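Task 17 of the worksheet. Students: predict the tertiary structure of the chain below and write it out as structure tokens. Keep your answer in the requested format; marks are given for formatting as well as content.
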Amino acid sequence: MIIALVMAGGKGLRLKSDIEKPLYPLKDKPLMSYVLDNIKESELIEKTVVAVSPNAPNTKEFLINDLHFSSFDSSFYDSDKNEYYLDTLGKGFVEDLSKILEVFGSRSKDDILIFINADLPLVGADILDEILSYYLSQDKPALSVSVPVEIFDEYGVNYSYEFNGNVPSGINILRSENVVQDEQLLIISRHELIFNVNTIETAILTNKFL
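Model answer:
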């Protein structure tokens, strides 16, 4: 099964807003809703799980009360429902990732998990399916997606880290097993991947493309 894991449990301190980052409004629509809508349009993704944490209680309430997401439990693989939330401790990305892999790995080690940050509203279904199609065409269990720094410079978007001229996009694929996995790097020159809404400045820029 191919499952989208939306990471929505961070504190979002850089955005400097009283509103939790996944709920931050872009054109009167919560940031995370763009991500979830894009995932729904994917031809390859079968189910969606949003990782939440105590850092963002309103985000969890939004998923339950407004979007009618179900709590992840043992019925996940047998249910016709496609949208779930999963509680994590919110201690950090690595810790939450390990928890998620443990949960899924205890049930199946054959699932394909595509991780996408909740602050990537411009990454449409076409890009998600392009990434997944590439992953399925090669034999390594893990995939990371990066973007050339030139794309960031072209659009005037800042980045905090680069390696060999490429910047991590916030999208990764792993098998559902909490072990070190051999990783393939995919470099994509798409501006949609550079708009991580982490600051007010990036939010203003992103609005122009919605």
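Marker's comment: Helices lie at 31-40, 57-66, 93-105, 125-137, 149-155, 200-207. The mean pLDDT is 92.
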